[in-house]
Every structure is written in structure tokens, then in C-alpha cells.
Amino acid sequence: MARRRDATMEDVANHAGVALSSVSRVLNDHPDVSDRMKQRVMGAIADVGYEPNLLASSLRRGSTKTIGFLASDISNPLFAEIALGAERRLDEAEYTMVLTNSEGSGERDEEMIRLLRWRRTDGLILSVSDERRAGTLVELARLDVPVVLIDRDVKGLDDASVVTSDHARGMRSAVDHLIELGHTDIALISGPRQLRPARERLRVFRRAFRDQQLEPPEHLLRIGSFSAQSGEQATLDLLASDRPPTAMIAGGNLLLTGVLRALRRRKLTVGRDIALVSCDEVPLTELHSPPITVIARDAVHMGDLAAELLLERLVGDAEPRRAVVPTSLIVRDSTKKARRR
Amino acid sequence: MARRRDATMEDVANHAGVALSSVSRVLNDHPDVSDRMKQRVMGAIADVGYEPNLLASSLRRGSTKTIGFLASDISNPLFAEIALGAERRLDEAEYTMVLTNSEGSGERDEEMIRLLRWRRTDGLILSVSDERRAGTLVELARLDVPVVLIDRDVKGLDDASVVTSDHARGMRSAVDHLIELGHTDIALISGPRQLRPARERLRVFRRAFRDQQLEPPEHLLRIGSFSAQSGEQATLDLLASDRPPTAMIAGGNLLLTGVLRALRRRKLTVGRDIALVSCDEVPLTELHSPPITVIARDAVHMGDLAAELLLERLVGDAEPRRAVVPTSLIVRDSTKKARRR
DNA sequence: TGGCTAGTTGGAAACGATACCAGTATCCTC
DNA sequence: GAGGATACTGGTATCGTTTCCAACTAGCCA
Predict the structure, then answer these.
(1) Are A293 and A281 in contact (CB under 8 A)?
(2) CA-CA-CA-CA torsion for A21, A27, A33, A39, nearest 10 degrees?
(3) Fewer CB near the last or first residue (10 Å), C or N of chain A?
(4) Strand D positions within 7 A of protein Cβ atoms
């Protein structure tokens, strides 16, 4: 089906016997076009099989109607949902979303941001892999378009909108819940400090203990990556220690699968031998036996909100602002009375 | 940080006191450039803070170095993995992937294909929501760039490469396995016939029975959408029927969560009260109690392969071809001896 | 020394659209 | 019927690149 050359507006104009600019006006439905002109041009468009070239249009217009989305791990269902929410919202506003992935690498963060800049996307939604990296900040500073961060705090970047989730509240209620059940040897398995969610969870985890006049169990903290493998290793490690935990908090859905694998290998039963809380709802948390207590939040909504904040600035020319998505503790059978020791 | 106007190659040329075309040659490292020229231009680029405009470049060059990916449901972890595989591969070859989503709507299939065409992507990887839709075929026919279909058969589209998975083999061994365990009342819960995977599974499901001189249990077929809700409804429906199944096959990971919800509601235990097989490995299948027998395939590899087939045609100028990804049955505790009736 | 080639460079025409500025025709209004 | 506003249309510069072609320089050989 290869045609020799795509028809252009000029071809349309020639075929219709009108000026190029008139074709443009018709296509952008400019107020000053007669019905007759509209008819002729539309006819010619159909005749020659014209299709707009959005590249040329964007170049001239200075706007691509495209938004870049950078996720730190696209295969994580959490990000898939955020992306879904964002895409839906952007699509409504006639924007196309370019989804890219840094796979946990700060270096790729930089490359992707640069690439999106060069492609002249009209705005960016970012969930970078490393908030602290200097190079990333440099790339961001060169940016000339609105930015929305998702659950990230990049210091030095003051003119970005931010969507965060209320990790503090969620983690707080999780720890309180466990303490109330009689647990004090609570392990926290979480991701790297370069990322806000991990930092927040850790901060509040410790604080929750202190507020109850308890010493945070530093020996039960395991800070690694957000991967399943990291979760599995950390759990095995904890279980092999002198004083293993009676409860665990997994800081993400990938970590959770690692934790569960490890528990299964050690033949421990969740809810009976050890209490378990996870972060972010996935099918597994609900359908596990026993069902797993979880700190939940609405990921699709986060994406939607991110797109919203971006559009505010793009269309409405509003100021950057912060939005917080609530979290809530869903208590299930994985957290019960602590075993007597 | 808003600069008045981005620096262009012309600014670089002026600053360096050379011609615009020389700057271009340096940037595209053309063979005929002296070292001295290279130095001067590079210096000027740094001085004025020049950054390439990929829009203008693409327009002139006639290639965007961009590939469109259309998924029928991006929030499905299966597609997330396929996208991941494809993106990795494309990224190596310096292509950017634009990920879009038709959310199960054939109408959006059309719109998205049209949009990608207008944006002049160099190639497309498609997993459309409806293979049979006439409008989609029209949009595809207008396309002038290589296309790879993922697990879809669009008849009338002869010049596309295709990556499929060997559903036949997987389904065949699943049914054989269940029959061998003594099951004959086997239910199949699957997606719409517009999609190849569903069609293939159904075809082979029936055939497997006939090959064993058995009548396929038509009353236990439930063909709906691929959603969790559809799976739940179908299961409840089956369980309420005169002669409920002793085994079930769920044709996808979303369907599976629906099936499990329904079974839980009816207080049935997987593996004891009813045998269960699912399609596509997810954390839930492995970590469920009991673990769920599954027809598995390597989704990341499928994406990788799709990108590969596309690059073959883009870079290597090869002919379209078909590739098949194997499936394998992983037997777990969810399929055991049939209960005596 | 003349002429030829190879290595570099500059100039200008595309690529396919949009938007500004004029120009013409039409219609009121007094 | 003159004047001016209004509705439409055409021509052309421009967006930021790449690419083709011509021109210039230097080196080399006869």
C-alpha cells in the first residue's frame, strides 16, 4: 500500500483551486471561512486523501500536544495504574502521552528527561528513580515546560507541581495497629532512601514508636531496593536473626511477593506465625490466604490528579501546587493478636 | 528558568562564525569535517546552550525515530510486561516508544492508530481491542509503515509481522491434564471471540475433548470480557447451575481474580472443592494457597520479539514474518484428583 | 606551472504546516 | 453615492532542521 508521497495541504489547495492558507483555515476552523470554501476544501481533502502532518504543525505552532511520562518501573502495577489515570485525563484534553521508563536507573532518568525535552513535549509527569541525583536536577532546570512530580520531592526544583500520597498517615495507622495488637518487634522492609515514599515510611515508622515511648527496632529495618528479590532476601535475613520479628511491613507490592516467597520457604504461616502489612492494594493482597492488611491508596486517581495539575498550568496558566492523595489502612486477617513469646 | 527563546543551530552558527550547514554536519558527524571546525562548533554549542529540536529534524529527515505501541489494556500486568520488553529493545536501537491504550474499545483502536499515523511514527506495535472491526482495517490499510501485531490476527492485513503465543499447545496440555485427573465437567471462562487468544483457547478446548472421544461441555463455556468482573459473574453463574463444573480454566489474570473472588464468596476451596487452571503467570498464581496451575509464557520476551521484528523491517529492510512464543503448563496444587461425584 | 582530485565549507532549497498582512468584494449607513 | 466597516481570501515569511550543489583551498603529479 505504499503511496509515492503523502498528500500535503498544498496538494489540497491545488486540487481545490484555492490558497494554501485557506486550507489551513478550514482545517483549524477559523471563524472567517465561507461555507462554500469549506465544502470545496473538504471535498479536495477527501479526493486527494490528505492527512495532517502533526510534526510540521507542531514545529510551526510551537506546541506538540504531547506529554512525557517517566516512570521508574513500568512493570510495577502501581505505575501502570498511575499511567492509566494520567492517560485518560490527558486524552480528554487532546494530549498524547509518551510513556517512558527509567527502570530504576538515575542515569536513565537523565537521558529520558533530556530526550523528552528535545522532543519538545509540552509538559512532563515524572516519577524519577533517584530524587537526589545532581544530573537529574540539571536536566530538570533546563526544562522550560511545566512539570508534575509523582510522589517525589526534588529539592531545588521549586516550580513543579507535586502529587504525593499521605504515607505518613497510612504508616502511622499501620504501626499503631500492630502495636495495639501487642507487637513491638516489627520489621520494615522498604526501598531506597532516594525515594520519597521509602523515606516517609521510615520516618513515620520510627516516630510512631517514639510517640508511644518505645524504642524503634533499628535492627529490624531492611532498606534495599523495591524489587521482589530484595524483599525475599531481606525476609530470609530477618528470619535468620537472633530475634526475628513478630510482624512485618512490606513497603510495596513487589517487595510483598518477595516476602511471601521467603515466608513460604521457611514454612511460616501469615497471620498465625507472623503478622504482615503491605503497601498498595493488588489482587494478591485481597486474595491471599489469609487476606493481607494493606495501606491502600487510589493509584489511578493519583495519575488523574497529576494530569489535572499539569493541565491547569498548560491550559489554565495556573501556578504550581501540591496535592495529597489519602491513604487508608484496610485491616485483614494477616494482622491478628501477637503470638505469646 | 524561562529563557526568551531556545537557541537554534543558526545561533550556534553565528556565534561560531560558520555556516549553518557546517553545524549540521558536525552534529550528524558527517565524514567531511575538519577537527578545527568540530572544535569551534562544539564550543559554540556549549556557549549558547544549544539543544536539538527533534521536531524540525524529524520533519526534514522524514523519520521520527518513534514507534507507536497500542495496548488493549495497559493496566493489565501482561501488557505492562510486553511493553517493557518492547521498550528495552527499541531503546537500544535509539527509538522512543509512544505507549497508548485503547481500553478495550475498538473505536479507540481506530482513533489511536490514526493519531499515531498523523504523528508520523516510524512503525507500530499493535495489540488491538477488536481484530474484526472494519474501521480498524481501514486505518491500518492507510498506513505506510511497518506493523507488528501482538497475539492478534487481522485478516486482510497481509503485510504485517506477527508475534503470537502458542495458545494451542498450552490449552491442549491443560485440558489433557484435567481429563487425566478424571475431570470432564470443565468450565472455560474466557474473553471475546474478537481476540485471537480467546478464539484459540476455545477452539483447542473443544478439540481436546473431541480427540478423547468426549463431548465438549458447551454448557460450561462462558465467553465475556477479559475483566475481573466478568470472571466473577461467570463463576457465580456456573456455580449456580444444575451441574456445576469440577474444574475451571480462567483465560487471563484479570479473569482469575474474579474467579477467585467468586469461589471465596461461595466458600469453595481451590484444589479441594474445585480444580483451577489460569492463563499467564502473575504473583498471585504462584503465591495463592494452594498455588495455581498455570499456562505460562514469557511476556517480556513477546515484547522484545515484537520490537525485534519491527526493527528487522525498519533497519534491515526485511520481509514481514511470524514468530511464535511457546507456552508451558506449570502444574501446581490447584489441580488434583477429581472429587468423586 | 597547469590541471585534476580530494577535502572542506557556504548558500539556499526543501520538509509541511501556521499566521500575519494585505487586498478584494460585499454590505450598511447617512 | 461616498465612506467605512465587515467578511473572506491570497500571498508570503517563518518554525528549525537536513541535504544538495557549488565553490574554494590545498596538495599532488606530470
Answers:
(1) no
(2) 110
(3) C
(4) 7-12, 14-20
**CA to C1' distance (Å), from B142 to D29:** 59
Going along chain A from its start, the domains and CATH numbers come out as 9-52 (1.10.260.40), 65-164+299-326 (3.40.50.2300), 167-296 (3.40.50.2300)
Looking at residue A4, its pLDDT comes to 53
Q: Which three cell numbers stand for residue B247?
A: 474444574
Please answer yes or no on whether B159 and A84 come within 8 Å at the CB atom: no
Q: Which helix (H) or strand (E) holds B330?
A: strand B328-330
- pLDDT per residue as tens digits for the range A71-95: 999 889 999 999 999 999 999 999 9
C-beta atoms of A80 and B80 within 8 A: yes
A287 contacts in B (CB within 8 Å)? 257, 260-261, 264, 284, 288
**With an 8 Å Cβ cutoff, is A83 touching chain B?**
yes
**CA atom of A181 to C1′ atom of D10, Å:** 81
Is any atom of nucleic acid chain C found less than 7 Å from the CB of residue B93? no
- Between CA A147 and CA A162 the distance in angstroms is 8
* Tens of pLDDT, residues B167-195: 999 999 999 999 999 999 999 999 999 99
The predicted-structure confidence for A310-341, as pLDDT tens digits, reads as follows 999 999 889 999 999 999 999 999 997 655 44
SS3 assignment, position A339:
coil
Q: What is the pLDDT of residue A72?
A: 93
Enter the DSSP assignment of B201: H
> If pLDDT is split at 50, 70 and 90, which confidence band does B32 have?
confident
Q: Do B100 and A97 touch (CB under 8 A)?
A: yes
Residue A328: its H or E element: strand A328-330
Q: In angstroms, how far is C5 C1' from B19 CA?
A: 24
How many whole angstroms separate alpha carbon B108 and alpha carbon B122? 20
